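Service request form, structural biology core

Requester: graduate student, group of Dr. S.
Request type: structure prediction, single chain
Budget code: on file
Notes: please return the result as structure tokens.

Sequence provided:
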Amino acid sequence: MGALLVVELRAWPAVILTATLSQMGVDLLVYDKTFFNALLFGINNTIEPIVGACLLMRFCNGIPKLNRLSHIMLLTVVGALISTLFSTIGGAGLVVFYTGLEYWTIFRVWWFADALGVLVTLPVILAFFEDGARINTHSISRMLESIITFGCILGLTQYIFGSDPGQSLFVLDFPYLIFPVLLWLIVRFDKRMITASLLCIAIIITLNTDLGYGPFINDKKQAHEIIISVQAFTTTLALSILLFFAVISERKLVQTELLENEKELADTVTRLEREMTVNEKVSTELESRNAELERFSYTVSHELKTPLVTIKGFVGFLDKDVASGDWGCVTSDLERISSATDTMDALLSELLELSRIGQVITEPVSCN
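Core staff response, request fulfilled:
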């Protein structure tokens, strides 16, 4: 399933064919099955990854992300529970048909094993082969910390699950002691370290249980009950760690987004403050220009009003002088009116020239 998720769609036939042939090879060489039986089991076990990969890509809108809580839930429900039912139903039926064992017992063991395989192996493939997954080798101290931590986890796991089942339990012998160590691992390291540790822990638990060691070995229990207990514990361990990792990753992502938004908001506030400062300067300058314009308008209106008052006054004198027949004063009145008119014409010409000053475009002059 993991291979189907990380490769392109056009490579699916090759992956499916390789998986089927590998399953048939193991059945023929290791379990000494007939070719027909091996073919049936190979086809049955290939149905699960195809269904699981299609459903996960459909509901996750692509490759599932380990740092998304919703994707971990989909991986658990769709990948580990639903898709494994297809191979479990058929596989358990084939085993019962050829061996005559109880169907429900085979079904439970098979289903737990497939679900455990999905929760342990699929995250490793996603962590190491998804886009952008790169191992950081720049910090030597970080690498040393990773190696030492990885060794301590494996050593603790071997100590807990490699002990004789009949010996008295010490505080370090309890299987759930591995949980706080892995929780600390989530805080300190990335998904590659976490998923690789889960895979190695599952392998150590399985091998020791198969050899008859560990806290789950009990003479009072049947073999399938011991297997189910180990599978249930390992599945709970893997699912808990993956959920915690997804929750912490989403929290870190939200914190990062909040910091980015806070920085963006601070930049926006700074920009607005600068714009407000510029606007205040422009506003002050506009107020000053308006005041100058008011003073200029008052001066112009006063200067223009003076010739008009003169003209109006001498027009009245002109009427009186014409009525009395004093032609000498009439000539003087006309001269005053003409002078005032010239003064107004000069003022208007100067105002027009002043208005054209900002519109004058100087012709380029060659300096050669």
